[in-house]
DNA sequence: TGATAATATTTCGACATCAAACTATCTGAC
DNA sequence: GTCAGATAGTTTGATGTCGAAATATTATCA
């Protein structure tokens, strides 16, 4: 199933693992998308709403780093959310460079309408794994995600 | 580190695992991008070149499904690759709906120039895991990627 | 104070991505 | 043979994504 690459044993092992990891997340996200649990908001929009919902109002820059997206990108995503009335921008009174992003009523209810189904879909997708497999996956991902130099 | 969500134990465990998986692949891909091992081609372009390089000339639709991207997307990616002379389109003589995509000389050398560094970067990133961890990760991902209904 | 550095966001250009509508071509049933 | 439906790609429109350069504002410090 992997590639037709021929290399050292370590290279083969790494490529094989990498491809399985990539395919796994790809098809997992595809299946989640197909379930359409998010309704008419996009995954990015969901991520932003969800972050603000759980953490509270944040600076636009804080939202970017929470959601692991670039700042320039966050501008457009929040533009669209604001256009749809789901969030509200507010200039900081003291430091007028920063913008605070708040959920509106509509944003809160939109998220609350969507969140349970999303979580249920996740639980269902992951139910193919045993508890110990989930723990192992979590631990290995944590290690791999952290990387070498992040001491 | 996960979210502030409060739910059943199964929900918490699932969310925690999901977030670790997502963060892991996110930061892994970010680090790979920062290494800039692909030079001036994009990840999508690399994926297409790599697929054709290893599997051989393919129909545009076959490339789409290999790379797990939509057909409409593949049109533009291959447009850009063709513009840069890395790939060549060729109508099928018998079935004129079909387009075969071939690597050009330039495409082959571009890929061969870039592939070793890419693999080396992968090996380095994954070297933080032990062999048995890589195997466990691969197996769990295979299971999770396959999903419930794909018997 | 006033020049310079730092920070937060926006703008711009290029690419990616998908769904839906469309074109061209082929196949099969009649 | 012809026409309906299937199939391969393309186009279009909306969103997302990044990096680099621009803008606006605030902080620093000589």
What does this structure look like?
The structure is a homodimer of 151-residue chains. Chain A has 151 residues and is mainly alpha-helical. Helices cover 66% and strands 8% of the residues of chain A. Chain A contains six helices and three strands; from the N terminus they run H-H-E-H-H-E-E-H-H. Chain A has helices spanning 9-35, 43-55, 60-67, 71-83, 105-126, 131-146, and strands spanning 58-59, 87-91, 99-103. The first copy, chain A, has a three-stranded antiparallel beta sheet. In chain A, helix 2 (43-55) packs across helix 3, helix 2 (43-55) packs across helix 5 (105-126) and helix 3 crosses helix 4 (71-83). Chains A and B meet through helix 1, helix 2, helix 5 and helix 6 of A and helix 1, helix 2, helix 5 and helix 6 of B. Chain A binds a DNA duplex (30 and 30 nucleotides) through helix 2 and helix 4.
Structure at a glance:
Two copies of one chain form a homodimer. The first copy, chain A, has helices at residues 9-35, 43-55, 60-67, 71-83, 105-126, 131-146, and strands at residues 58-59, 87-91, 99-103. Chain A is mainly alpha-helical and 151 residues long.
Notable features of this structure?
homodimer; 151 residues; mainly alpha; 3-stranded antiparallel beta sheet; 6 helices; globular; DNA-binding
